[in-house]
Amino acid sequence: MTRYAIYAVPGAGPDAPVEARRVRDAVERWYAREGAQTITTDPRRYGFHATLKAPFRLAEGRTEQELLDAVRDFAASRERVVIPSIAPAAIGRFRALVPAKPARDAEALAASIVRAFEPFRAPLTAADRARRRPERLTPRQVELLDAFGYPYVLDEFRLHMTLTDPLDPARCEAIDEAIATHFAGVTGSDVPLTALTVVTEPAPGAPFAHIDSFPLGTKEPSA
After folding, report:
1. Per-residue pLDDT tens for 71-83?
2. Cβ contacts of 105-110, under 8 Å, gap ≥ 24
């Protein structure tokens, strides 16, 4: 069954700043790099992004067009934000680009999206919930899973743009060196986020596909 997600994709949108396009280009070159294909299977399937609303099935009675219209309106009414001072980092066994400084504006945007688009999300099935391995989550993460369909939101959210699959510890040093070298040109950059992107997974396990990107901050203020 089709799932949807709302992403932050630096470099997406018609007027994406050059700093954001440079980061997106660096990540896409990393995914395509010889030797990296075997450790980027999931990141390539999901596409370069930071998750704002995790993948969900549409609630009964909701349509894709309604979702797109709602994201367009929401984006227009929100200010653009900056992901500050990005740098490669370890998140468990994964590697990702993360803000090296507090990213409160981006985190606030993510929290508002999680809440605003909850009416579009169908409830988790028992199988969906079991796949999240709730027995391995903290009580707070279980609470968020049951409330929002995903355990890493609100106070458990950490903005990140995934670069690898889970890594074999024996390979981490070499891979970390390769990542540091590859991303040296963009490490420390402040990355503007100028649009929200809606993507879809048309069937379980299929690559996520871009539907549309909607500019942030286009709504004219009231007189």
Report:
1. 999 999 999 999 9
2. 105/79, 105/81, 106/8, 106/50, 106/81, 106/82, 106/159, 106/193, 107/157, 107/159, 109/52, 109/78, 109/81, 109/193, 110/8, 110/52, 110/153, 110/157, 110/159
Distance CA 130, CA 3 (A): 18
**CA 207 – CA 209 distance, rounded (Å):** 6
Round to whole Å and give the CA distance between 114 and 108: 10
Q: Which domains does the chain have, with CATH numbers?
A: 3-114+160-203 (3.90.1140.10)
Asked if pLDDT for residue 222 goes beyond 60, the answer is: no
Read off the pLDDT of residues 203-215 as tens digits, 9 standing for 90 and up.
999 999 999 999 9
C-alpha 199: how far from chain center: 10
Please list, in sequence order, all residues whose beta carbon lies within 8 angstroms of the beta carbon of residue 189, skipping any fewer than 6 positions away.
19, 22, 23, 85, 86
